[in-house]
Specification:
The chain has one helix at about 5-10, and strands at about 40-45, 50-55, 65-70, 75-80, 100-105, 110-115, 125-130, 140-145, 155-160, 165-175, 180-190, 200-205, 215-225, 230-235, 245-250. It has one domain (about 5-250): 5 Propeller (Tachylectin-2, Chain A). The chain is built from one helix and 15 strands; from the N terminus they run H-E-E-E-E-E-E-E-E-E-E-E-E-E-E-E. The protein is globular, with a radius of gyration of 18 Å.
Length: about 260
């Protein structure tokens, strides 16, 4: 992903971010996708992009994974989600609970995550992950520890780190009327047949200075002039005048004890 504008802002060469080119996402017939399409995450691969759309357990608003052409915005391909994620009585993804996250483990190698445990699963069974290797169907690939998730909590973003063996997870929580939590956690890639993986380490993002809000997006950003990697986070205001859409840039602090 190009970060030229953000890199210049961080270096003091620009005082604001400016929107880039916009693409209207269309169906294969060239018509705009229906309003029920709720794009939650995307992975860009050359001139194409995969987009995960969250569902509402209805025929009008199903959960979807599609690939579009970035030049025209038109739908090129749609992959069927596995049976365990489909909305059937008492089973599948909950309404507005996924697929919430999409990240790439390699070219054409996609990892999807639900936001909360599937309806047929217990909380201890964790957050379901699905993987689509090039040329294969989407299959279960283990789970992440869910922790003490409440009704409005969940994993809102996953990011495969360059090692491809580590995942950064963003957990967002909400307690009505206005209490938010946000936590960043590092996971090893799960064993498809193993128990839900526990976080290796975690950080409270509100303690780190982020405003309490609906943090949902995450990507690797540009490197700083001293070589440190940045992490870009974004929040969704839900069209609520009491919330804001934020963009935050994080970078690790390097102390004298650090050798790498």
């Amino acid at each position: 992903m190009p970060w030229g504008g953000l890199a210049k802002l961080l270096k003091g060469q620009r005082d604001a971010l400016r929107p880039g080119r916009r693409v209207l996402v269309r169906g294969g017939d060239g018509q705009p996708l229906p309003k029920g399409f709720d794009g939650e995450d995307l992975v860009i691969e050359g001139e194409q992009a995969w987009i995960a759309s969250e569902g509402r357990r209805s025929l009008e608003r199903p959960a979807r994974l599609i690939r579009i052409d970035l030049g025209s915005g038109r739908l090129e391909k749609e992959l069927p989600l596995p049976l365990g994620w489909r909305a059937t009585p008492g089973k599948g993804l909950g309404s507005n609970k996924g697929p919430e996250s999409l990240t790439a483990l390699g070219p054409g190698d996609l990892l999807l995550a639900a936001q909360a445990p599937l309806l047929q699963n217990q909380a201890w069974e964790g957050i379901s992950l699905m993987r689509r290797r090039p040329g294969e169907a989407i299959r279960s690939t283990g789970a992440l520890d869910a922790g003490a998730l409440a009704r409005h909590d969940g994993v809102t973003e996953l990011l495969a780190l360059p090692t491809r063996k580590l995942l950064m997870g963003l957990k967002r929580g909400f307690k009505p009327p206005d209490e938010w939590t946000a936590r960043l956690e590092l996971f090893a890639l799960p064993d498809p047949k193993g128990p839900p993986v526990q976080p290796i380490i975690g950080w409270d993002l509100l303690d780190a200075g982020l405003p309490p809000d609906n943090w949902e997006a995450m990507a690797l950003g540009p490197e700083l002039s001293d070589g440190r990697q940045t992490l870009v986070l974004a929040s969704d205001d839900n069209f609520n005048p009491l919330q804001s859409s934020w963009v935050a840039v994080l970078t690790p602090r390097r102390t004298a004890s650090c050798t790498d």
